[in-house]
Amino acid sequence: MADIDVKLAQWKLVEVGRVVLIRRGPFTGKLATIVEIVDHKRVLVDGPSTEEAKIVPRHVLPLSHATLTHFVIPKLPRAAGTGPVKKLWAQNEIDGKWAKSTISQKTDNNNRRKNLTDFERFKVLRLRKQVCYDIASGGMNE
Predict the structure, then answer these.
(1) CB–CB of 16/36 below 8 Å?
(2) In whole angstroms, how far apart are CA 13 and each of 4, 19, 31, 78?
(3) N or C: which end of the chain has fewer CB within 10 A?
(4) In this structure, what are the phi and psi dihedrals at residue 39, rounded to the nearest 5 degrees?
(5) How far is CA 101 from the centre of its chain?
(6) pTM for this structure?
(7) Closest Cα to residue 18, out of 63, 55, 81?
(8) Alpha-carbon dihedral sign for residues 114, 117, 120, 122
(9) Measuring CA to CA, which residue among 93, 58, 69, 84 is closest to residue 14?
(10) Which residues are in the KOW domain (predicted)?
(11) 2 compared with 51, residue with greater pLDDT
């Protein structure tokens, strides 16, 4: 027999403790963790964020409304109450890890760009032209 190395796929599995980003509904853009799997299309989620504005109450969420992230809360018992979930959430620093992720940073940048005023968009245009001019002139404009 040949020696075969079996490696686990780097898939994001639907599992208890997996952190999800909610894409639709009243909690759009907020994080929650899977507490229990209801069936193959729905999960029970709870989002005890440390920030008051980002808290997601425990509810059943269709998987089509969620995006799985790479973050997992290890050793989260099935159907754990909000107290243990909140404790493990803070212990694993999920909010801090999320803030450092590229998805979060891109979302923040997109939101900031969407909320620019007319004058701020004009300033961005002028700055981009200035950078383009500096590059084209080879830095001679200093």
Answers:
(1) yes
(2) 24, 11, 16, 15
(3) N
(4) -150, -165
(5) 7
(6) 0.75
(7) 63
(8) positive
(9) 69
(10) 13-40
(11) 51
Contact yes or no for 98/31 (Cβ under 8 A): yes
Q: What are the tokens at 34?
A: 């899977």
Q: Which of 17, 16, 94 is nearest to 55 (CA)?
A: 94
pLDDT, mean of residues 16-25: 93
Q: What's the average model confidence in pLDDT over 77-99?
A: 91
Amino acid at 42: R
Separation of alpha carbons 90 and 116, rounded Å: 33
Q: Residue 10 — pLDDT band, cuts 50, 70, 90?
A: low
Both tokens assigned to 37? 């799997």
- What are the Cα distances from residue 109, in Å, to 36, 104, 106, 112? 33, 9, 5, 5
Give the pLDDT score at 72.
92
Average pLDDT, the chain: 88
